[in-house]
Amino acid sequence: MTSQRTLNRLFVLHSWAGIVTGLLMFIVCFSGAVVVFKNEIDLWANPSLAGLPRTQPPAPLDTVLAQLQARYPGATVETIALPDDVNPSYFAHVRERGAPASQRTKVALRSDTGAVVGPVDSQLGQYLRMLHVFLFFGPRWIVGFLGTAMLVLIGTGIVIHRKIIAELFTQRWGRSFRVVMSDLHKSAGIWGLGFHILIAATGAWLGLAPLLEQGTRYVMAGAPAARAARKPPAAEPAPMQSLDALYQSAQQAVPGLQARYVSLRRWGTTSAEASFTGALAGHMASTARVDMNAATGKAKKVLDPRTAGFWSLVNGLMEPLHFGDFGGLALKWLYFILGMTPAFLSVSGTLIWLDSRQQRRREAQQQAGVQGGLQA
Fold it and tell me: Helix, strand or coil for residue 234?
């Protein structure tokens, strides 16, 4: 049995954790609920792309790359996104000659011929994802910290509200504003409890695990070794292997690989790389990756979550579980509806706290007035 003193302390922790993180929590949760439809939003924001033909199999990657190089001579093709269940087109990020590294153009290409359609007019879905994952300009660990704070709120809320079953169906509409909001706050939190734990835990993992991994690697390798690892390799001009042949080799290295993105680095040189990243056929993990030497056609690095160990498999499951992109449109709508509840909880919790403060202020003023009357 938890003592009343402990409950009071947990209530204070719960209240202040919610108030301090309330605004950021609302932004992250609201944008996260919407961003499950990222691809659909991007397609809606670019109606001209929705009418493009969907071809299976799509045009060869070599054709797509050749079309990009012909349309943007001298530019650097950084990534190519393959057509998927939502988007019927290829997309590529191109950095034109002389442009800073952060300035890239997103280009759409037809999936049947690989022909360049032109720059994408709107990237609304991507902006929402940047807001959710990075708060636009912040490091990802901030959102990971918010996931940890959400777990604290869930844990303290469970202990404070011990009569979970009773509060699950309690809604006193005819009472004061604070009572109504408190009932809504508790019932919404309880109904979505399992989903909230899932989202908070996966969000904390996605935000903090890379930071911990980098820190561990830095400590284990040492600062000089870490700096040496970042030194770019010497590169000389060299002929490139076929991009489609490289993809086939990557699929042989990781059976079932369904590449979503192809990243090109130092293309046209002896140290050129083509990285194929995507999901696995019949598996939920989304972090399979093969780095190919584009000059020799040999695999340099292979990541198969199924064989890379327990923690690699866990890490591969985190993003699909967090964004709900493994079960089709129906699951996305479920994630959207349930994902809105944490945003409501942050708003309702703040309103309850503000109303409670006003109530205490009124009581203090009334008590001061009574004491003044007695003294008079």
Answer: coil
User: Which strands form 257-265's sheet, in the order they lie side by side?
Assistant: 116-119, 105-109, 90-95, 76-81, 257-265, 273-280, 283-293, 299-303
In single-letter form, the type of residue at position 257 comes to L
Q: pTM for this structure?
A: 0.82
Q: Before 88, cis peptide (omega within 30)? A: no
Quick: pLDDT tens for 152-180. Answer: 999 998 888 766 666 666 777 777 877 88
How many whole angstroms separate alpha carbon 22 and alpha carbon 16? 9
Q: In sequence order, which residues have a C-beta less than 8 Å from that of residue 270 and are 6 or more positions away?
A: 235, 236, 237, 238, 295
Residue type, 60: P
Q: Which helix (H) or strand (E) segment is 177 a member of?
A: helix 177-191
Tell me whether residue 11 is exposed, middle or buried, using C-beta atoms within 10 angstroms of its C-beta: 0 to 12, 13 to 18, 19 or more.
middle
pLDDT tens profile 195-254:
999 999 999 999 998 888 777 777 776 655 545 555 655 668 899 999 999 999 999 999
